[in-house]
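Input.
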Amino acid sequence: MKSKRVSALVVDALEDMKGQSIRCIGVSKLTSITDFMVIVTGTSNMHIKALADSTVKRARESDVKIIGVEGRLQAEWVLVDLGDVVVHIMTAPVRALYNLEELWNFSLDKSAAETAGEKRVENHPA
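Output.
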C-alpha cells in the first residue's frame, strides 16, 4: 500500500477515535526514514492507548506491516511505526514540550510544505 494511502488510513482511524489536533506532515524530502509523520493528541493515557490500538487494528485490517509500537505502557507518548508512516500519539504537555511539528518543519517554507504533502486536520471537542 502506498504511503499516502497509509497516512490517510491512519488519519481516518484517529478521527474515528476522536484524536485531537491531528497533523500529517510529509517528510520524504527531509529524511529517508519515513514519508509521513502523523502527530495527534490524546486526552488521557487511556485515550492514547485506544488511539494506538485503533491505528494498529486498522493497519492490520489493511495488511499494512506494523514495524513496532513503543511507549504503550506509560502512554504519554506512543509511537506506532508503520514504515513509510510513523504515528506519534501524545498527551498535550508532551506534545508541547517536544514540538515535533516545529522540528520537522524547520526547513520547510509554505510552498515546500505543500509540495511535501503536509495536511493539517484539526479536531476539537464540541
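The CA atoms of residues 26 and 113 lie 7 Å apart.
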